[in-house]
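FORM 7B: Structural annotation worksheet

SECTION A. Query
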Amino acid sequence: MEVLRPALININGRIYRRNVIKEEQYEEEDYSYIGPPESGDLAADEACDYHYIEQTDKGFRCAIDVPSVLYKYIIGKKGETRRRLESDTKTSISIPKQGVEGQIVITGSHKAAVSSAVTRVEVLIENFRRKQPFTHFLSFPLNHPKIQEGFLRFKDEVLKQCSQDRGVEGSIFQNPAKLHLTVGTLALLNDMEVRKAYEHLQDCQNFIRDITEGKPLPLEVTGIEFMNDDPGMVDVLYAKVRVKDGSDKLQMMADQLVEHFVSGGLMVKEWDRVKLHGTVMNTLFRRDSTVEDTGGPGRQTVNGREAFDARNILKMFGVYHFGEFDLNTVHLSQRYSTDCTGCYTSAGSIHLS
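SECTION B. Predicted structure
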C-alpha cells in the first residue's frame, strides 16, 4: 500500500482510509474517516440507519450480528484491538466465546461514542470478511443429461487424439455431474448468512422471469476457449454457452443477479460484466482431485500448477458441440459439497418458469 495513496473502503456509504498495522499472526488495520467535517449530531447518528442504538438505564447499547469466525479480528492479538477500540471510543465491547454464534454488544454512556464504536467494528468486519475464502456461489447448472453425454464424448475423443500432448490426461477434466456456469461467489460465514443469501435469491425471481418471459431458456453449448495468451500453456479450458435465439438474456440474468447481491452486501463485484464460462478442463484437478472449480479466471491461485498444451485440442475441438438444453434453475451452490446426484449441494434455487 502506498503511503500517499492509501486503500479506501466504503462502509454504508462512508469512505475510510485503510492504515495497515502489521502484527505477527495477521495484519490489523486501523481506519480513519476522510469525508467532510461532521457535527456532533451527525456523528451520533452515524450508524443509526443500519443498527439500532437503544437507550438504557445506564446509557446506550447496540447489538451487531457478527459471524463467530470474525470475532478474532475484533479481539486482536491478546485482546489489543478490543482494548484500543474501547479506549478510543469510551465504550465497552462484549464478544461471545469463540465458536459460539451470537451478537457483539457495544455499550457506553453517550450515543455518539457507541455509534463511533459500531462504525469502527463494522469497518474491521467488512475488511476481514473480504479475506475469507468463498463458501457458496451462484450458478447456472450445465449438468443436463444431454450436456453430460456430450462432455463425456469430448473427454474420450480428446484423450484418444491428444493424450500425447504435454499435460493432457484424464484427471484434469471436470466432473460431468458438476458442470456449471459460475455467476458469482459468496463468503457466507454462518447459517444466518446462508438464509439471507437464499432470501436474496428469492427476491430475484421476478426480474429473472421478466427476462425469460416466464419460460425456460434454451441454451446451446458449443465451442471451447481459454483465457490466457498462450494456447501452449493453458490451465483452464472453458465451454462456450449461448442462448439459442442469439439474445443476451443469459448475460442479462447473470449481470442483474450479481448487481442484486452486491447491493445487498453479499458479493463483491469483480468485473463490469459476468464472464460466462463452463469449465471442462482445469489443472487444479491434477494437483488435488478434491478441488472444486467454482471461480472465474482470476481466482486460480494455487502455485506449482502444471499447465497443458491445448493447441491441438483447440484446433480439433474448437467448435465441438456439447449439446442443447433448456435452463430452468439458478442455484445457490455450496462449495466443496456433493449431493445424491453427484452435483453440488444446493442451499436454495429459483426457477425461470
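SECTION C. Observations
The first strand starts at residue 8 and ends at 11. The chain is about 30% helix and 25% strand.

SECTION D. Sign-off
Analyst initials: ____
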